[in-house]
Design a protein that fits this description.
Layout lengths: L15 E6 L3 H6 L6 E5 L5 E8 L2 H6 L6 E7 L4 E7 L14 E5 L5 E8 L6 E6 L4 E6 L11 E6 L6 E7 L4 H6 L4 E5 L6 H19 L7
Antiparallel strand pairs: 1-2, 1-12, 2-3, 3-4, 4-5, 5-6, 6-7, 7-8, 8-9, 9-10, 10-11, 11-12
Amino acid sequence: THNLPPGLEYLNQLDQIIIHQQVELLEAILGTETSSKYEIKNHLGQRVYFAVEENGCFDRKLCSPLRPFTIRIADNAGREVIRVIRPLRCNSCCFPCFLQELEVQSPPGTIAGYVVQNWDPFLPKFTIQNQSKEDVLKIIGPYATCGCFEDVDFEVKALNEMTTIGKISKFWSGFVNNVFTNTSNFGIQVPADLDVRIKAVMIGACFLIDLMFFESSLDGL
């Protein structure tokens, strides 16, 4: 473990990661979009990391799910161990040359890998890349991501897209929660021996999937 990026030793033996978005009272009551805050836990529900989104109010109001952001992920001692950076890009099959791309750093300032959206007319598809931009894994979502009364699974696959090795799941959290807040709960399942840097990139992929498919503006409520 002495060769691991500082702070990522917590991910070394994990095969399940739970990401829980904290409820923002102002967002729930007034319908005002606020910066997201997340707890990242192991399968026992013990908090491993805490994540905070950084961006401007203008970005949140105008761009909403497409907004650029920096998410800083800190361990329980308050040390920043992962940084997730999302620039402003398109989210439409009409612009296949400018689709989503996410950069994950660990430690901050050192590239751990990337999440790259792939063009597809029907399915959400992404490629997980290492620090050298070499393809490592694929993520393929379902045709419909509304998730009414059920979980939504994005399958993690080998590069041939035939073998499933894990998944990113959006857990349905109940009618009241879905109507009155954008609060999300996700689970990531990957092999325990997967490179911890790629596990960190998978956390970044989970944040990207959340904003692209499950966060909608509450301004009309």
